[in-house]
Structures are given as C-alpha cells and as structure tokens.
Amino acid sequence: MFLREALVRLERKDSYMSKVAVVFWSGTGNTTAMAQAVEEGAKSAGAEVSVFGPSEFNSGMVKDYDGIAFGCPAMGAEVLEETEYEPMFTDVESALSGKKIALFGSYGWGDGQWMRDWEERANAVGANLVYDCVMANNFPSDDDLEECKSLGRALV
After folding, report:
1. Dist CA 72 CA 26 (whole Å)
2. CB 35 within 8 A of CB 144
3. Contact 98, 126 (CB under 8 A)
4. Could you identify which of 46, 59, 77, 120 might form a hypothetical disulfide with 95, taking C-beta atoms 3.0 to 4.6 angstroms apart as the criterion?
C-alpha cells in the first residue's frame, strides 16, 4: 500500500505543470510584443500560462502561480502606468515575498530609471527576481524578444 501511494505521488509530481502569470499593460503595443514573447518562452519550458491586464490581477491571485512576469512601459517621468498598473502592483507587493518574479517593459526616453526603481521595490519586499529585467527602447528588437523568451523560461 505504501509503495503504491508513493508511486502515485511521484507520478503526480512528474506531471505537475508550472503555472506562470504574465501581467502587463501596454499603450503602444511595444510591451504587448514583449509579453507575447515571455508567454512563448514560459510555454516552451512546459508552463501553463495565464495572461492578465492589471485590472484583472490582484494580490489574492499571487498564491495561484509559481512565477509571475510583470510588464509595464515607462510613463511620464519614468514611472509605472499610474491609472491601472501602479495601483495593481502596489496591491500585490506585499504578497510577493519569496515569489519567483521577473520584470520587463519598454521606454522611449530616459535611461531606464523606472525599471531600476521597480526592481528596488521588488527586492525590498523579498521577491525572488529570477532573471535580469528586460528593457526595450521603443519597439523590442529581435534580441529583446529573445531575452523576453528567456525571461519566461526562467519563471518555470
């Protein structure tokens, strides 16, 4: 009996599919292209992927995912989008301690300060940043999209 239960548990573990969420906002389509590459990378590594806009994701959902990719472009004076994305991220921050996450986004000016600030916030709450943040200047290049795929795979 014990051996049979152990084999069933082992079989379940082998068939477990990692769950990854991709939560992003895009104003021009640049970050959308990046999010699609993140999704593709996570799926290629065997993950079950769910994609959300910021109004569809909240702190109560964090526990449902093994890894979460957060994507948002720089807005205004190099900040996260303030109407939907910033409130959502503020809500989920306290639930990110120990959680595997990764950050990505695009920008059209500045030097990436919004991403450094965002990374600092994630580190401050104890999130496990599993991949270097990926930033694209305007529309992502082929290299940027490959980095996004790698970011997605790192979350699995």
Report:
1. 6
2. no
3. yes
4. 59
Nearest of 91, 79, 107, 99 to residue 54 by alpha carbon: 91
Report how far residue 73's alpha carbon sits from residue 138's, in angstroms, rounded to the nearest whole number: 9
Quote the CA–CA distance of 100 and 78 in Å, as a whole number: 24
pLDDT tens-digit readout, 79-130? 999 999 999 999 999 999 999 999 999 999 999 999 999 999 999 999 999 9
Q: What is the pTM of this model?
A: 0.90
d(CA 126, CA 93): 9
Count CB atoms within 10 A of the CB of residue 143. Answer: 9
Q: What is the CATH number of domain 19-154?
A: 3.40.50.360
Take residue 75 and report the two structure tokens written for it: 């807005």
- Identify whether the C-beta of residue 152 lies closer than 8 Å to the C-beta of residue 20: yes
